[in-house]
Amino acid sequence: MPPPPTAAQVLQPSDERRRQILAAARICFARAGFHGASMGQICAEAQMSPGALYRYFPSKDAIIEAIAEEERAGAVACMEHLRGPGSIADRLVATAMEYLASARDPESGGLMVEICSESLRNTTVGARFCELEEMVRATMRTAIAEARAHGEVPADLDLDVALTMIFAFGDGLMMRLQFERDVALEAIEPHLLRVVRALLRMDEA
Amino acid sequence: MPPPPTAAQVLQPSDERRRQILAAARICFARAGFHGASMGQICAEAQMSPGALYRYFPSKDAIIEAIAEEERAGAVACMEHLRGPGSIADRLVATAMEYLASARDPESGGLMVEICSESLRNTTVGARFCELEEMVRATMRTAIAEARAHGEVPADLDLDVALTMIFAFGDGLMMRLQFERDVALEAIEPHLLRVVRALLRMDEA
């Protein structure tokens, strides 16, 4: 017979319960902002009692932390493409395409805009997501530096300016694809590849 | 002797007064959002009494409308570069550089993020700024279509996809340059030109 569950085990939400709460929270945060959305709204959206929700997540901060963790895991998954086949531009575009596809959901896309807004205001939430971006940027920087070492991009390429431009393009596309729902992701892929190649000055290498 | 001022003339703020109120409102909106900022906060920021402020702008909506009008005038001024010398890419980049320079002010940059956020949420404020963007987009579309007619860009260039990409890049740069204060605008200009040329497929024309 298995031992009875410990308190910690009892309080751990099942994967399904956790997914349900975080999905509801994303909707509420996207709609009303991290500050504007209340735990009460999240309960209503998740169709749970406050008692049940607080048992899983003791505060809004705990929910935000869990969403940041989901985003981190998503970013790591996207960056698997950096180890795939093809040129450095192909691999960066594959990474970006997966990110854009996951961000195109109207709810989570709205949340991305909230995250940008928090980052600009330099809030605690903003800082949490800036850390995540630093991780993504460092991984991409390593991949491009390796490509530079192999002569795939020019030796004098300024990695930091190139990365700033690539991230700017990623932010902008992520946001704009929320508005322009009729633009197919596949339609932008060749343009994205042209832009990344231009920013990495691959025709000069 | 001039006739006495009419009521309408008395209520019209002087240019300096107007500038002062709108600058204060931009700071408050950037800090707390269009919904979050109150007329009281705008008064405090402008160092004016509510009575004085309400005499000039009867509502927050009237202030937002005046800011939208300032943005429209700014956009028209930037687009003067589309009639300047150089290739279509040079002219688009000159337009973008003036926009980016004006948006780099920390306060108005923050406001731009609020505007994006409103547009995503499809609010009345968002719709007002979408109209402005439609105007800018139509003007740029005409300029690129003329360049296409002259053979400067390929005949099969999809103007709408190219414009979506250019606007995405503009949005993203505008936002990112708020965070990355140490990146000089002049440093990004050559990259911007490479990207616009790539998006317009000018090397194929």
Automatic annotation (TrEMBL), chains A, B:
Cite the InterPro entries for this sequence. Answer: Homeodomain-like_sf, HTH-type_TetR-like_transc_reg, HTH_TetR, Tet_transcr_reg_TetR-rel_C_sf, TetR_C
Gene3D superfamilies associated with the record: Tetracycline Repressor, domain 2
Domain of life per record? Bacteria
Binding region for DNA:
38-57
Q: Which UniProt keywords apply?
A: DNA-binding, Transcription, Transcription regulation
Give start and end of each HTH tetR-type domain: 15-75
Q: Which PROSITE patterns match?
A: HTH_TETR_2
Q: Which GO terms describe its molecular function?
A: DNA-binding transcription factor activity; transcription cis-regulatory region binding
Q: Which PANTHER family match?
A: HTH-TYPE TRANSCRIPTIONAL REGULATOR RUTR (PTHR30055), HTH-TYPE TRANSCRIPTIONAL REPRESSOR RV1474C (PTHR30055:SF229)
Q: What is this protein called?
A: AcrR family transcriptional regulator
What organism does the record attribute this protein to?
Aureimonas phyllosphaerae
